[in-house]
Write a structure and sequence with these properties.
The structure holds 2 protein chains of 2 kinds. By secondary structure, chain A is of the alpha/beta class. Chain A contains 5 helices and 5 strands, in the order βαβαβαβαβα. Helices cover 50% and strands 19% of the residues of chain B. In chain B, the strands form 4 sheets. Chain B has a 6-stranded mixed sheet with strand order 10-14-15-13-12-11. A 5-stranded mixed sheet of chain B has the order 2-4-5-7-6, covered by helices on one side. Classes of the chains: A alpha/beta, B alpha+beta.
């Protein structure tokens, strides 16, 4: 199944790194990138995406706020919030908005595991 | 360089620059929550980047800073000078690493111990601030070593005390010598000798503690080394501008194809009469497209002066601290745009002028208070656009330049003789500081490894097609003003022919061209002069200026180009004054770069290279 995945991070380097991992495991997926929450919302409103991978630490609205908004727009979309800081607070809030928490720097395995689980969830919904 | 590393360096530089800006703002307003958050984010993202490229030492060092900032964010610790100092030293470390990455295309090998040392300093309180003193590269390391020697000396019970004592003294002496503090090394040896006799090492420890704490005051004359200013190697461009150029490129292709059609018509025997309207139409379209392209490309190179200004608050802060002169530094007009070439080249002259203001302009605290001034001096760096120029000013409220003092120095260094000096107004006297040879070797700092006096400042600004002015009032302060062209890319020039060779001179220098009859040229002392528009102006032979061997012929009539240099008119005799051209001026390269009097070269339509002359420089030299 070819999916559309949205990667949101204010760091271009971080987006590149996710892109590399995605290309390795899912070369056929369509990848969209945004540098902040506003851009991300713009993309999702213009054209729905299937999965979102969101950085926690961003100028403007942070990744958790964005995750909450994304979940509101598309309640069934799997969303992961990525942060370099393994803080209980972030973890708890991610769980509250129904997002998966992933630790930065992202490893290929962490991304693959999340995506496998996300695909399973999407398939179960269909 | 691999793409990831390249983006990492670029992004880290941007983030470091953002963090530096935030920290300096935070220093002024410690309660600025937005700046604190922004600095935190910048360090955090840098750390994340370091993790991605697997540069573990940097990630570790930045993690330490991030924790400090996190504590400040949660209100556990205050935002104070120590915190800001530590963050700034982290940025120094990051810059050094990024430079190393760029230089060797790989992660630096020795970063791990550096990161360790840095983190130890973070834990050891405010030592990091001392380590950041400008001009002394590895002071932190040296001090750590000295501290170790102190610990060795403190251990009086261990085995082989005498041997350890001697070794520690030996090491400490060498460290002090390496730091360029031989007097202290000698002192240490002397104290050690007396301590050895009495067995009381308290004096020795006190001496070492002083040596560690001494703020190595930079030598007055040499001045502290300037923080490194690295060139902006990438250019961020609004995507809209690129799109527009892409569109223009498309239109140019269409125009090219249309021209091919005209060529076909000509080959098939179309008459000139028939071809003319077709070609004329194409030419009009091409002229418009080329002009639009030129404007757009120029637009790409336009940058805000912030790019160069943003490094100065930090530098002024460090320098003011090391000179112990409290200074309020303000900037205005950072958003003023200028051509990238101008922005890139302004850093060095501005740095020099700012350092002069701090070093020579601003008085010591006591002197300021004695003169009834505020203890805190003010230095302002401002920029504004004036027509086709960008004007940049550095103003201080220091002691001002004393013309009497300048006269003394000028006389002493043989810049002018006594009679010449008496003829000068105070303003003209002050301007002597721009003369080559005015700055003594002692004042010449090794900015970027070469000597820089005010004459070098003037020469850089002139190379950019600009001018430098200075205003100063004794006791009230000094203002140095640069006026540089907004754009350096397209320069209107006039061509002149001298001894059969074509040269260009910037049109802004040209007052008029004039035919001079032999009898209009009158002797003036050993030189020649003529009267134009009621002014008596000196005449120079173009061939003399350009050191051509060809003797000027005796003609009935001469062609002269009247140029203005520093408010004075000079008539230059040429074989022929030619047309006005708009040229793209390239900075002089190769052999020309070291030849005086050349501001650049331009490619002419027929493929010839036009050498564009720097008249003030040429006439100075002649």
């Amino acid at each position: 199944m070819s999916l559309r995945i949205l990667v949101v991070d204010d760091s271009r380097l971080a987006r590149m790194s996710v892109a590399k991992a995605l290309t390795a495991s899912h070369p056929d997926w369509e990848r969209l990138e945004a540098a902040n929450a506003d851009e991300a919302i713009g993309i999702v409103k213009g054209n729905p995406v299937d999965i979102a991978l969101v950085d926690f630490n961003m100028p403007g609205r942070d990744g958790l706020e964005l995750a909450a908004e994304l979940r509101e727009l598309a309640p069934r979309m799997p969303v992961a919030v990525v942060s370099a800081n393994h803080q209980d607070e972030v973890l708890r809030r991610a769980r509250n908005v129904g997002a998966t928490f992933l630790v930065k720097p992202l490893t290929q395995k962490a991304i693959d595991d999340f995506l496998t689980e996300a695909v399973a969830r999407l398939e179960a919904q269909n | 360089m691999n793409e990831f590393l390249e983006v990492f360096v670029q992004e880290s530089r941007e983030l470091a620059s953002q963090a530096s800006e935030d920290l300096l703002a935070l220093e002024r307003h410690t309660g600025d929550r937005g700046r604190l958050d922004s600095a935190f984010r910048a360090f955090h993202t840098m750390k994340g980047g370091a993790g991605i490229v697997e540069f573990e030492p940097m990630a570790r060092a930045l993690h330490g800073i991030e924790e400090l900032l996190a504590r400040a964010r949660s209100g556990d610790t205050p935002v104070n000078a120590a915190l800001i100092g530590n963050c700034l030293s982290a940025l120094d470390l990051v810059h050094a690493w990024l430079n190393a990455i760029q230089a060797q295309d790989a992660l630096p090998a020795n970063a791990a111990p550096e990161a360790d040392r840095f983190l130890r300093r973070l834990q050891g309180g405010n030592r990091a601030v001392a380590a950041r003193q400008p001009g002394v590269g590895n002071l932190g390391l040296a001090h750590d070593l000295l501290r170790q020697q102190m610990l060795i000396l403190a251990d009086e019970k261990g085995a082989n005390r005498a041997g350890r004592f001697a070794a520690a003294i030996h090491a400490a002496t060498n460290i002090l010598r390496a730091l360029g503090r031989p007097e202290e090394a000698e002192q240490l040896v002397a104290i050690a000798a007396s301590c050895e006799q009495t067995g009381d090492i308290r004096a020795l420890r006190a001496m070492l503690a002083n040596a560690i704490d001494a703020q190595t005051t930079p030598e007055r004359n040499a001045g502290p080394a300037a923080p490194e200013i690295e060139a902006v190697r990438t250019l961020r461009v609004d995507i809209g501008r690129i799109d527009f150029i892409v569109k223009l490129a498309g239109e140019l292709t269409v125009a090219k194809n249309a021209l091919a059609h005209a060529v076909t018509l000509a080959r098939e025997g179309a008459t000139g009469e028939a071809l003319f309207p077709v070609l004329k139409g194409h030419q009009t379209i091409l002229a418009r497209l080329v002009e639009e392209l030129q404007q757009s490309v120029l637009g790409l190179r336009v940058l805000p002066l912030r790019q160069v200004f943003q490094r100065f608050p930090r530098m002024v802060r460090d320098l003011a601290e090391s000179l112990d002169k409290p200074v309020q530094f303000t900037m205005a007009g950072e958003e003023t745009d200028a051509d990238k070439a101008i922005v890139d080249n302004l850093a060095e002259p501005l740095l020099h002028v700012l350092r002069n203001a701090l070093d020579h302009g601003v008085e010591q605290r006591e002197d300021r208070l004695g003169a009834g001034k505020t203890e805190m001096a003010t230095i302002t760096l401002s920029a504004r656009r004036e027509a086709e120029h960008v004007v940049i000013e550095v103003a201080d409220d220091g002691r001002g330049i004393d013309p009497a003092q300048v006269r003394r120095v000028a006389l002493q260094r043989g810049i002018r003789d006594e009679s010449e000096l008496t003829a000068l107004t105070d303003q003209q006297t002050i301007e002597l500081i721009f003369e080559p040879g005015f700055s003594t070797a002692a004042q010449v700092s090794n900015l970027s490894g070469r000597g820089v006096g005010m004459d070098a400042v003037r020469s850089v600004i002139r190379k950019l097609g600009g001018t430098v002015h200075i205003e100063s009032e004794v006791g009230a302060g000094t203002t140095v003003r640069f006026a540089v062209p907004f754009s350096v890319l397209v320069t209107p020039v006039m061509t002149i022919e001298v001894a059969g060779q074509l040269y260009g001179i910037p049109l802004e220098r040209v007052v008029q061209t004039q035919r001079l009859k032999r009898e209009q040229i009158v002797p003036l002392g050993t030189a020649k002069a003529c009267v134009i528009r009621g002014r008596t102006i000196p005449i120079l032979q173009g061939s003399d200026l350009l050191s051509c061997t060809e003797a000027p012929s005796d003609q009935r009539e001469y062609e002269a180009v009247v140029v203005e240099i520093g408010g004075q008119w000079i008539a230059v005799l040429v074989d022929r004054a030619g047309e006005h051209l708009q040229v793209m001026l390239n900075p002089p390269g190769g052999l020309l770069a070291v030849t005086r009097g050349i501001s650049g070269t331009a490619l002419l339509g027929d493929g010839r290279v036009l050498v564009v002359l720097d008249l003030p420089d040429l006439i100075d030299t002649a």
